From TrEMBL:
Pfam families: Y_phosphatase3. Residues 132-171 form the Tyrosine specific protein phosphatases domain. SUPFAM superfamilies: (Phosphotyrosine protein) phosphatases II. It comes from the Bacteria. This is Tyrosine-protein phosphatase. InterPro entries: Prot-tyrosine_phosphatase-like, Tyr/Ser_Pase_IphP-type, Tyr_Pase_AS, Tyr_Pase_dom. GO terms for molecular function: phosphoprotein phosphatase activity. Transmembrane segments: none annotated. Residues 1-21 are annotated as: Disordered.
Amino acid sequence: MIEGLQNFRDTGGTPLDGGGATRSGVLYRSEALSALTPGGLDALAATDIGVIADFRTEVERGMAADRLPDSRPFRVVDLPLLEGALTGMAQQAPKADDPNAADAAAAAIAAAVAQLPGLGDLYVSMLAGGAASFAALARLIAASTDDAPSAVLVHCTAGKDRTGVAVALMLDTAGADRDAVVADYASSAAHLAGAWADRMRAMVTAMGVPLTPTIDTLLTGTPAAAIEQALAWTDERGGAAAYLQSGGLTDSELEALRARLVA
């Protein structure tokens, strides 16, 4: 564990279909690094992580900037996904001088909530437009080495959705057991339960958004069916490896990715 992070883990040790397991010290995952304590910063500096891949949008990064150790350099790579997801709702909000602002705001929120997809559908939408970003992550992992701190830590805000889909793609490409891939994804909900999840719910309800089961799952849930739907979508298109190649990953990079991830 790293102090200040609830959803941090090494993806190494994931069982492979043909026996064996993925390599430790190559690919890590977590939520945003904005809450790292001094002790957490020291612990991060002591790892073999050298690359931080951030799937958050510019707005998200501005709201909660990552904290990184200053004792050694880290390469930060921004790979924003879901650009406009938060600003889209804000753009529907009425102007402050609208005499019917309160009613208009309530109507805008209700309309936005009614259009929210289920988590699995959200992941499919993410995959449909995000192949280049996911391939870029794969390229970073493929380029890592054992000679210097160059392991990759991938994160978004919660470390469960964009990060969850990304890690599932990487593990699936490496030949990981599908049940193990799903179990890793699903474990994020338990890691985020408690203070973190309660804080997210409070932020949403403070905006006047009703905390429906769909919204609560979008905020804090990691149901197995959601990632299974995402992986089924890639299966229908040739599998995770073919999907990454559709985003620009070359044959040699794909081979290097598998070589890095498989122990």
